[in-house]
Specification:
Length: about 425
């Protein structure tokens, strides 16, 4: 690649790359080679955030809807670039907060992002003075990396077609994440690749041995049960009853499905997230468990009491930086505290609450074991048993991981709780 400023002959302009810009943005329409309007580059006025930029070659101003699942605000400075830009220039601009709206070959954009990633990874990590310091520095570095790599932007037509050479069909992936397309928009390539990956996971599914080899198909934005140790804990713990169970924060519905497969006659799964509710319903229907498992929208507990209540809350008491992280981070342990504080009032006499929780937070210095036990006691509960398992995910054995020591010591537990 050569520098953007060194002008090279432009490739032939395809129909979708020519635009007519009107005085009124609502009247702005591109033109095809025969002059007929095709789609609008300038997004209509909406309540959604918008990205604005000026095409340096034509000196025309453009606006389009800005998409960011993490809620990242649209970049204030944008430059238009294609295959002529170098990775060094692109990375430098991204570090300076200058977004790059791509107009070249899509596959070259992917290669450029990989090259920018390599440059971002060259920066040596800061030395940590404690596990908590290592965690905070790691999150800070990951946030900065995401911000920098998120500066490479891709245009989307109203129907989610990418108007670039060699671009993949992302209509299904975008529709699953964003809903029906309504207007042209711009998204970071990094987020778009995440959508594509999530779409493939949704199609392929995750094999769950506890379901006899059946698969769970996670939707975009719903935590995938790729770490199977917590599922195995629920599959093996002795059931206090097979009459009824509540699954609090059901997500994909995997634990509700495991309980139903174990013979629990009726399971009620709850969640507040619309994506999770749709995902759980689809998975349970695919497994033929829709008459046995009910999925409802609720803040933690449904109405009534049950002899078994299961909850696998986010494991780390920290603030999530994106929607998908809400399954990992629980600010101030709100969900954990809410589950513990409400458990006794929703258990039938003699019933059990199963709390599935990793001690990763303890090894990072985010929470102590004494603090967890104090929460349990303050909620009027007692521990009647605990089953432990060591995680087997790749990071647990990766000595190069910044949090390796904490990951290597991590244990996931199923705490069996009863009302005192």
């Amino acid at each position: 690649m050569t520098e953007l400023r060194k002008r090279a002959p432009r490739p032939p302009i395809r129909a979708k790359e020519r635009y007519r810009v009107a005085d009124n943005p609502r009247d702005a329409l591109p033109i095809t080679r025969n002059g007929s309007p095709r789609f609008s580059l300038l997004a209509p006025v909406t309540d959604h955030p918008t990205l604005s930029w000026t095409d340096a070659e034509t000196a025309t101003a453009h606006t389009a809807r800005w998409r960011s699942e993490a809620g990242t605000p649209p970049p204030k400075r944008v430059t238009v670039a294609d295959d002529r830009i170098t990775a060094d220039t692109a990375y430098r601009q991204a570090c300076e907060g200058i977004a790059i709206l791509w107009r070249g070959d899509f596959q070259n954009a992917r290669q450029l992002l990989q090259a920018m990633s390599r440059r971002a990874d060259r920066k040596p990590p800061k030395a940590a003075t404690s596990p908590l310091d290592a965690f905070n520095l790691h999150r800070q570095a990951q946030s900065q990396r995401a911000r920098t790599l998120g500066m490479l932007l891709i245009p989307l037509d109203a129907d989610y077609t990418i108007p670039l050479r060699r671009a993949p069909d992302v209509h299904e992936a975008c529709t699953e994440a964003y809903g029906a397309g309504e207007e042209p928009s711009v998204v970071s390539l990094r987020e778009l690749l995440g959508l594509i990956g999530a779409h493939e996971w949704r199609k392929k599914g995750v094999d769950i041995p506890a379901l006899g080899g059946a698969r769970i198909h996670p939707h975009y934005g719903v935590f995938s049960p790729v770490r199977g140790e917590y599922v195995d804990l629920v599959a093996k713990a002795p059931l206090p009853s097979q009459a009824l169970a509540f699954d609090i924060g059901t997500g994909t519905g995997v634990l509700a499905a495991v309980l139903a497969k174990r013979g629990v006659k009726r399971v009620v799964g709850t969640d507040q997230d619309a994506r999770a509710l749709a995902c759980a319903h689809e998975n349970l229907t695919r497994l033929g468990l829709q008459s046995q498992v009910e999925v409802i929208e609720a803040d933690l507990f449904p109405e009534g009491r049950a002899p078994l209540i299961v909850c696998n809350p986010p494991w780390l008491p920290a603030r999530p930086s994106s929607p998908i992280e809400q399954a990992v981070y629980d600010p101030d342990s709100r969900m954990l505290r809410g589950f513990l504080d409400g458990l006794a009032a929703h258990l039938e006499p003699g019933g059990e609450g199963w709390l599935i929780l990793s001690d990763f937070a303890e090894h990072l210095g985010l929470r102590t074991r004494d603090a967890l036990l104090a929460m349990i006691e303050a909620a009027g509960l007692q521990v009647v048993g605990r089953d432990d398992v060591k995680p087997k995910h790749p990071k647990a054995s990766d000595a190069n991981d910044p949090l390796y020591q904490a990951r290597a010591a991590e244990v996931t537990s199923l705490w069996r709780l009863k009302a005192r």
